[in-house]
Design brief:
Elements: H1 6-15, E1 23-27, H2 37-46, E2 51-54, H3 59-64, E3 71-76, H4 78-86, H5 88-100, E4 108-113, H6 117-120, H7 128-141, E5 149-151, E6 154-155, E7 159-160, E8 169-170, H8 175-188, E9 192-195, H9 198-204, H10 211-214, E10 225-227, E11 232-234, H11 237-251, E12 259-264, H12 279-294, E13 309-311, E14 360-363, H13 369-380, H14 402-416, E15 430-433, H15 481-494
Parallel strand pairs: 1-2, 1-13, 2-3, 3-4, 4-5, 6-9, 9-12, 12-13
Antiparallel strand pairs: 7-8, 10-11, 14-15
Helix pairs in contact: 4-5, 4-7, 5-7, 7-8, 13-14, 13-15
Pfam families: Glyco_hydro_17, X8
Subcellular location: Cell membrane
Catalytic activity: Hydrolysis of (1->3)-beta-D-glucosidic linkages in (1->3)-beta-D-glucans
């Protein structure tokens, strides 16, 4: 997404030039066993999460968050919006009870006035701008308007014709609300809050949007989507949606309100008609999202101007209505155990739930079975890997495939060699991964957390990608003459 002009970039960047982009987490509460606020805050502190967004202004949570330094976004629930939007006094009372009573011990930085009001509660839309103004006036009266920003999160579906981004515009039905709302955000130096869900865009595209494009996976330049009007190249859905918001605002002559993404994520489990709601895809999306935001890449339209984002969400919510995926957006289970371990190697510690210094060596998907077998034979022979765990009846025998057994041998060799560069290649059939390949009672080398305890088995067992089930006969000293020759070749390759 290209710049409309250099001055436009300066205008947007100047709004929060002194603030660093951040990744925060939304905290939903539709759990049958919702942890106590003190347990929630203990998890936040343990995971080094410094920004959270609440869907209410729960007193217990606000008290638990006091004196932690964690920056908190609170919400005026939709059901309270009508009263606040019709009465300045009601807004003042809300601020008194939910902000003044807790600030500054609780570091409240943002107030979300409602959530997706235009699409979820359209009958309240006429009072939305009044509600924003009344909440702002109450902050001014309490001398808190410089410390706390006021805005309202909107669903990305209000943006029409979103690709190419340069053609995007807001649903004209909402122009009477959006114009004064954007002017309010502009005058108060606040953000345009947007909920961005590439998962839904991907699911609804009927194959038009490639999965890799939705997941932030690296794309070759010729695979990127190009906006013909600006010649800007888009490598992911997230950036395209954010820039569509910028262009839609520009269509209403607003060019200096920065976008903040208040919700984004990917479900880790879904119904049978949601095959891409998987642990691996959720991990890939959120890990790539975190890196993208914190690297301050920005978007094609505003490069270098990072978009602060709240991940949806902290916990899986088993009481959420709707399809199975609705219950499985969380980074953690209610007991604080990670649903998956984030792929954050080499991008700094954002959450303690990352894989810094946790890398593994796995057989490469689609690798030739004969090449895998030869590499496996070398690792279990001249490579001096102890492959006893792969023998029948032992912990890592199942699944009995070349792919699974080769992954165990490759990873063991990789760790024996101190994870040195080049020790996970095996002539191109192995690759470094941050996904722990341990499964069941088969624990791979290096599969321990920072406290030295074994990781929980949140990683799915490897599936069978090879038809071979006789690889066990080649281990240790059971080499045929042909395999000895292959091993000699591998010795030369590895040296």
């Amino acid at each position: 997404m290209a710049l409309v002009g250099f001055l436009l970039v300066l205008a947007v960047s100047a709004v929060f030039a002194d603030e660093d982009a951040f990744v925060g987490v939304n905290i939903g509460t539709e759990l049958s066993d919702m942890p106590h606020p003190t347990q929630v805050v203990a998890l936040l502190k343990a995971q080094a999460i410094r920004h959270v967004r609440l869907y209410n202004a729960d007193r217990g949570m606000l008290l638990a968050l006091a004196n932690t330094g964690i920056q908190v976004a609170i919400t005026v629930p939709n059901e309270q919006l009508l009263g606040i939007g019709q009465s300045n006094a009601t807004a003042a009372n809300w601020i008194s009870q939910n902000v003044v009573a807790h600030f500054p011990a609780t570091n409240i930085t943002t107030i979300s006035v409602g959530s997706e009001v235009l699409t979820s509660l359209p009958n309240v839309a006429p009072v939305l701008v009044n509600a924003l103004k009344y909440i702002q006036s109450a902050l001014v009266a309490s001398n808190l308007d410089r410390q706390i920003k006021v805005s309202t999160p909107l669903a990305s579906s209000i943006i029409l014709d979103s690709f190419p981004p340069s053609q995007a515009f807001f649903n004209r039905t909402w122009t009477p609300v959006l114009v004064p709302m954007l002017k309010f955000l502009q005058s108060t130096g606040s953000y345009f809050m947007l909920n961005v869900y590439p998962y839904f865009d991907y699911m609804q595209s009927n194959g038009v949007i490639p999965l890799d494009y939705a997941l932030f996976k690296p794309l070759a330049p010729n695979k990127e989507a190009v906006d013909a009007n600006t010649n800007l190249h888009y490598a992911n859905v997230f950036d395209a949606m954010v820039d569509a918001a910028y262009f839609a605002m520009a269509d209403l002559n607003i060019t200096n309100v920065p976008v903040m993404v208040t919700e984004s994520g990917w479900p880790s489990k879904g119904d049978s008609n949601e095959p891409d709601a998987t642990l691996d895809n959720a991990n890939t999306y959120n890990s790539n999202l975190i890196r993208h935001v914190l690297n301050k890449t920005g978007t094609p339209k505003h490069p270098g101007i990072a978009v602060s984002t709240y991940i949806y969400e902290l916990y899986n919510e088993d009481m959420k209505p709707g399809p199975l995926s609705e219950k499985n957006w969380g980074l953690f289970n209610p007991n604080g155990v990670p649903v998956y371990i984030l792929h954050l190697t080499a991008s700094g510690s954002v959450l303690a739930n990352d894989t810094a210094n946790q890398t593994y060596c796995a057989a490469k998907e689609g690798a030739d079975a004969k090449m895998l077998q030869a590499a496996l034979d070398w690792a279990c022979g001249p490579g001096k890997v102890d492959c006893a765990a792969l023998l029948q009846g032992q912990a890592c025998y199942e699944p009995d495939t070349v792919f699974a057994h080769a992954t165990y041998a490759f990873d063991t060799y990789y760790h024996q060699m101190g994870r040195t560069p080049g020790s996970c290649d095996f002539n191109g059939v192995a690759t470094i991964t941050t996904t722990n390949p341990s499964h069941g009672s088969c624990i791979f080398p290096g599969s321990s957390d920072r406290n030295g305890s074994l990781l929980n088995s949140t990683i799915p067992a490897m599936d069978s990608r090879s038809s071979s089930s006789s690889s066990k006969f080649f281990y240790i000293n059971a080499f045929s003459a042909a395999n000895i020759a292959i091993s000699a070749l591998w010795i030369a390759i590895m040296l």
